[in-house]
Design a protein that fits this description.
Layout lengths: L1 H36 L2 E10 L4 E13 L3 E3 L5 H6 L3 H16 L7 E5 L2 H5 L3 H12 L6 E6 H6 L1 H13 L3 E7 L5 H7 L4 E4 L11 H16 L3 E4 L5 H8 L5 E2 L8 E2 L3 H6 L16
Parallel strand pairs: 2-4, 4-5, 5-6, 6-7, 7-8, 8-9
Antiparallel strand pairs: 1-2, 1-9, 1-10, 2-3
The structure holds ligand C2E and magnesium ion (3 copies).
Organism: Rhizobium laguerreae
Protein name: Diguanylate cyclase (GGDEF)-like protein
Keywords: Coiled coil
């Protein structure tokens, strides 16, 4: 009865797919309504300067508070929002809110905003950014845009001029999740990023595994040699922080400093005592 089993399995997968489709449609309808119902919220995660031993900025991370499903993580709706084009409206909202929030923070504190590939191809990103900055009266130098390699990959010839225009206005551009794409190195030389953010998958074993440490060391040196600021994401322990203090790493981000928190907690985060692994470093310029 292998055949019968096979048919049963096929039916199971067909039902499963049908259910998936329905869930998607429901989610898409909810997502459309969410923009108007203001169900989104931004949480902020500190970017911690290792040399100055202080928070130097925050990354804005979107949260969707669904009335029935509860909190839906970005990975469960951003890809869908990209597919159906809603990420343009959502992205505009994120830019506005992030700039408004950052305008309340001390002068030296930047805000980093994630930008999706769709925002480059189906909207006037430069205009949206300018409008958000103007509405908040925030200096362009306090805004960083984070883009992943896949953004560049989608359409290099379309994206590059936009990145250059943004950079000319004084906005900083970071390459996010560095090392996860398949041709990271060639992209590094096609655009002068201000910063690379080394993906958290590279930090996991750096304390216990020599090879993992060596790879981290090499990526940090590469970014440094190219004159880019280097951030390591996903730092969860004091041991990882101590190790990164010994490297040319400029900045870290991760649960060890703080998880993403609601905007109202930013002043509290800024008031916390510095964290360090006990390694004293000279500022880069003086070495
Ligand atoms: P990302 O830009 O790489 O953001 C970092 C993610 O790592 C965040 O997940 C953050 O909560 C998580 N993280 C931070 N520190 C640690 C740590 O120490 N350990 C671990 N395991 N994780 C840590 P989150 O908030 O779930 O966001 C996931 C992704 O969703 C982001 O990755 C970004 O690609 C996307 N995303 C978030 N907000 C937006 C947005 O406003 N617009 C767009 N287009 N994408 C967004
Ligand atoms: Mg990011
Ligand atoms: Mg990242
Ligand atoms: Mg990442």
């Amino acid at each position: 009865h292998a055949k019968a089993d096979g048919r049963k399995r096929e039916r199971f997968f067909a039902n499963e797919m049908e259910a998936q489709m329905q869930l998607r449609h429901a989610l898409e309808a909810d997502l459309r309504a969410a923009v108007e119902k203001e169900e989104f919220e931004l949480h902020y995660q500190p970017l911690y300067d290792l040399t100055q031993r202080r928070i130097c900025g925050f990354e804005a991370l979107i949260r969707w508070n669904h009335p029935v499903r509860g909190r839906v993580p970005p990975m469960d709706f951003i890809p869908l929002a990209e597919e159906v084009g809603l990420v343009v409206d959502i992205g505009r909202w994120v830019l506005r809110r992030a700039c408004d929030d950052a305008a309340q923070w001390p002068e030296g504190i930047k805000v980093a905003v994630n930008v999706s590939a769709i925002q480059f191809s189906s909207s006037d990103l430069t205009r949206d950014v300018s409008e958000a900055l103007a509405a908040a009266t925030l200096s362009p130098s306090r805004l960083e845009l984070e883009i992943t390699e896949s953004v560049l990959m989608e359409n290099l010839s379309e994206v590059l001029p936009i990145l250059h225009a943004l950079k000319e206005r004084g906005i900083h551009i970071s390459m996010d999740d560095f090392g996860t794409g398949y041709s990271s190195l060639s992209y590094l030389s096609s655009f002068p990023f201000d910063k690379i953010k080394i993906d958290k998958s590279f930090v996991n074993d750096i304390v216990d595994n020599k090879e993992a440490h060596a790879i981290m060391h090499a990526i940090i040196l590469l970014g440094d040699a190219l004159g880019m600021r280097v951030t390591v994401e996903g730092v969860e322990t004091a041991e990882q922080l101590a190790l990164l203090e010994c490297e040319e790493c400029d900045e870290i981000q991760g649960y060890h400093i703080s998880p993403p928190r609601p905007a109202r907690e930013v002043p509290h985060l800024l008031s916390l005592p510095p964290k360090n692994g006990g390694v004293t470093r000279l500022p880069k310029a003086k070495r």
